[in-house]
Write a structure and sequence with these properties.
Layout: E1 9-13, E2 19-23, H1 26-35, H2 43-58, H3 64-71, H4 75-87, E3 92-94, E4 97-104, E5 107-108, E6 115-118, E7 121-124, H5 128-138, E8 142-147, E9 154-160, E10 163-164
Antiparallel strand pairs: 1-2, 3-4, 4-5, 6-7, 6-8, 8-9, 9-10
Helix pairs in contact: 2-3, 2-4, 3-4
Length: about 190
């Protein structure tokens, strides 16, 4: 899902009743979000949107109670949505505390070696790949003062005008992408 900070996405239904995500103008969408509940949306979509809206607005991945307050549903419903979204590989709850989100790709719910500065806020990416993903998700320029996972050497990753700033870095993924979700924290 792509987000523009301060301009979240909205879900709607097409002529066949299928859900679809579209970006609306900020003024129109902000009025809709602030003035009217969206009961027609699937609870999982509401929870997913709330997670990314809160993260974009605050720089922090929310917990289940913050999501419940944002969309005015019971926390146990949010936890059930977390489980379903995890089954769909859309987020990873914290293994020791299902009320917390460890990963809502590209955002990390815990500090990592990939801090990202964007829109005057500080985020954490899960990996080098997700550092660039935050630029894509927020549609803005970003800078990440990261470190090489092997040597600890400092790395500066940047994206400007929708493109990565090219550097002579090489990324190595020790686990094939098809197996990342086998142990996502390790990967």
């Amino acid at each position: 899902m792509w987000l523009r900070s301060g301009c979240p996405l909205v879900a709607s239904r097409d002529e066949h009743g299928r859900g679809q995500e579209t970006r609306k103008s900020c003024a129109i969408l902000q009025t809709a979000i602030n003035c009217a509940p969206m009961p027609e949306l699937d609870p999982d979509i509401q929870v997913k949107f709330a997670i990314y809206e809160i993260t974009a607005e605050t720089g922090s991945v929310p917990n289940s109670s913050q999501v419940a307050r944002k969309i005015n549903i019971e926390e146990n419903e949010v936890l059930a949505a977390f489980r379903r979204l995890h089954a769909k590989r859309l987020l990873l709850p914290e293994p020791s505390d299902p009320h917390r989100i460890r990963m809502a790709p590209p955002f990390s719910g815990v500090p990592t070696k990939f801090p990202v500065e964007a829109n005057g806020k500080h985020y954490y990416a899960n990996c080098v790949w997700d550092a660039y993903g935050i630029a894509a998700a927020l549609h803005c320029d970003v800078i990440s003062r990261a470190s090489d996972g092997y040597t600890g050497e400092p790395l500066t990753l940047e994206a400007k005008n929708g493109e990565p700033v090219l550097k002579s870095y090489v990324a190595h993924f020790g686990v094939p992408a098809a197996h990342w979700w086998d142990n996502l924290i390790f990967t």
